[in-house]
Design brief:
By secondary structure, the protein is an alpha/beta fold. It contains four helices and 21 strands. The strands form four sheets. It has an eight-stranded mixed beta sheet with strand order 1-4-7-10-15-18-20-21.
């Protein structure tokens, strides 16, 4: 009787499923459970009280801010409802008198995100201090690792609604980022930028 080729040579989909199971198993093995508890299981009102008494920052009880010594706020900084701040090792530091708008997300892996004094960040802004490598065709993107450089936002910056701030960017003092811009390069002080990718459209006088 002839062999069934599908038994002898597993289908590509079956091979892919085996890789997925192996990858998931490795991720579970490498999980930092202390980080998970601090990020997802500490009641949010407790997190708000912790940051208020430690830094005099106002964290909305419906914001999702990880409880971590790596996340620091200046006095009178406000985080609005449904905003997210997470870290996997790097520091996220806000200066005095900042505001993070609703539904915005700030996240880092091992590098730092520094936000200066009196910075305004509108709603639905994404700021992530990591980029995925993707250049190799024969390797899944999820298996190609990350590039990490960190992000710096200097004093008196206004970032409009819906902006994306990519890893490695330095935004100079007094800069303004128009709503919906994707910032992939450094911005000089007091420049107004907008568009995808963001380009200079004016200057503050």
């Amino acid at each position: 009787m002839a062999e069934n080729p599908s038994v002898r040579n597993p289908a590509p989909m079956d091979q892919l499923k085996k890789k997925d199971v192996t990858r998931l198993s490795n991720r579970v093995t490498n999980l930092n459970f202390g980080n998970l508890i601090a990020r997802y299981f500490v009641p949010r009102p407790i997190v708000s009280l912790f940051y208020f008494f430690k830094y005099r920052a106002i964290i909305h009880p419906k914001a999702h801010v990880q409880l971590s010594s790596k996340i620091r706020f200046g006095a009178a900084t406000t985080v609005r409802q449904y905003a997210i701040i997470n870290t996997s090792g790097g520091c996220v530091t806000f200066g005095n008198g900042c505001e993070l708008g609703p539904f915005s997300m700030i996240a880092t892996k091992s590098q730092n995100i520094h936000i200066g004094d009196h910075v305004r960040i509108g709603p639905h802004v994404s700021m992530t201090a990591a980029n995925r490598n993707y250049q190799q065709r024969d390797v899944l993107i999820v298996e190609q690792g990350l590039t990490e450089a960190g992000i710096t936002v200097c004093n008196d910056v206004w970032i409009g609604a819906g902006c994306v701030i990519t890893d490695g960017v330095h935004i100079g003092e007094g800069a303004v980022v128009a709503a919906g811009a994707v910032v992939a390069k450094d911005i000089a002080p007091y420049c107004l930028v907008g568009g995808v990718p963001a380009k200079i459209i004016g200057e503050r006088k």
